[in-house]
Specification:
Largest sheet: 3 strands, antiparallel
Structural class: mainly alpha
Distance between the termini: 65 Å
Radius of gyration: 24 Å
Order of helices and strands: HEEEHHHHHHHHHHHEEEH
Number of strands: 6
Strand order of the largest sheet: 1-2-3
């Protein structure tokens, strides 16, 4: 045991850390856990607390995001709790990842889609409990949005962004062991979708002053993108608080449409 401690303890700028390594070659992996001490005696005591969980960390059962609450010296409360990683824990990390690849304003639709999903299932839902039924089950997000008056094309925009998020959870963040698959909704023959990169290109074209396009058109496009409204619905509807109501006699589906708006969308 003494040799194990000595081999796994390292120091950086005087502070000790506990190093966990496994795998070989291209499969080699390493995690370093700060022990927040310059004392070797104290470090060896904390190392014993880490060693209890080493096998579960190597297997991926315990994620790096859980260390802060699991190891008492890493949180101000001084408590040790194996807290489930939740949606609200990973959202900032995911959005920061997307912003590193795209311009910040292009990530707005990701944020809207995630908030729609989290408003439905709960921000504190553990990542490990997510499955396809949260999307397309009888009590899933799709039915919830359809009952709220959203049309299939608007829902599909949300679903595409959620699919990218779930792929990130599996492939990049490795927070779920299996990918989450779900079906997109059928759309009419005349409905056409553009992806987030095409949308970004349109916004960039409007932003370029050399093209002489009034910024009003960008605000209008943002409204349509985030709400899934048809062209005339913002003009035919009535605003009540945070909701845009479109009378059934003026909607294609002949049903009352209720569309919840953020503060930004209300201003537009």
């Amino acid at each position: 045991m003494a040799n194990k401690k000595r081999n796994n303890l390292g120091r950086k700028k005087g502070n000790y850390s506990y190093r966990i390594t496994w795998g070989t070659g291209r499969n080699h992996q390493e995690i370093s856990i700060s022990l927040k001490t310059k004392s070797k005696t104290d470090a060896e005591k904390k190392a014993k607390d880490v060693e209890v969980y080493v096998d579960r960390i190597k297997s991926g059962e315990i994620k790096r995001e859980q260390f802060k609450t699991l190891f008492w010296w890493l949180n101000p409360e001084g408590t040790s709790e194996l807290k489930e990683t939740t949606l609200e824990d990973v959202m900032p990390q995911y959005l920061a990842y997307k912003e590193s690849k795209l311009r910040a304003k292009s990530v707005k639709r990701d944020r809207v889609s995630l908030n729609q999903f989290c408003d439905f299932v709960g921000y504190t839902k553990p990542i490990a409990e997510l499955d396809y039924l949260d999307i397309e089950g009888q009590d899933g997000l799709i039915n919830y949005l359809q009952n709220g008056g959203y049309e299939n094309n608007g829902i599909n925009i949300t679903l595409r962004h959620l699919r990218t998020f779930f792929n990130w959870l599996h492939k990049k963040a490795k927070l779920i062991d299996e990918p989450i698959h779900f079906d997109m909704l059928p759309t009419g023959n005349q409905e056409y979708f553009i992806d987030e990169y095409q949308i970004k290109a349109i916004y960039d074209y409007i932003d370029d002053e050399r093209n002489g396009i009034d910024s009003f058109f960008k605000r209008a496009l943002i409204f349509y993108e985030f709400t899934g409204c048809r062209a005339a619905e913002p003009l035919l509807g009535e605003l009540y608080g945070d909701w845009l109501y479109v009378d059934g006699s003026k909607s294609k589906g002949k049903n009352l449409r209720k569309i919840q708006l953020s503060e930004e969308l209300k201003v537009i």
